[in-house]
Amino acid sequence: EHHRIRWFQLKVMPAAPDQTVYVTNSVFLLASYIVTRIVVMPWATLTHLWPNYNAYVEHHQVKAFWMIFGGACFITLMSVAYTYILLKPGIRAFLFYGKPGAAKGTSNGKKAE
Prior knowledge:
Layout: H1 2-12, H2 19-49, H3 53-58, H4 62-87, H5 91-95
């Protein structure tokens, strides 16, 4: 049984990632991460949590409000830092597996001979 699973893995997931699949995955990852963590999180916090501050006060849950608000802010700031770190080497390095020449068809940045 184990050898069939390994055979399938080797056929489906080659040692070197297919450039098209990798780039597509990178684009979707970058877009979805930025949208969900850096755009939606602050938007949801400011449009749904913040307007309900008085309800938290009425129910003596101010501490819970600030914990949720602080957590959302922390996640957003952490996500901005993570995105910056990912993109610091450049968008090309992020999209093409971190290899400078990968977009040109080489793996080490040198011209193919």
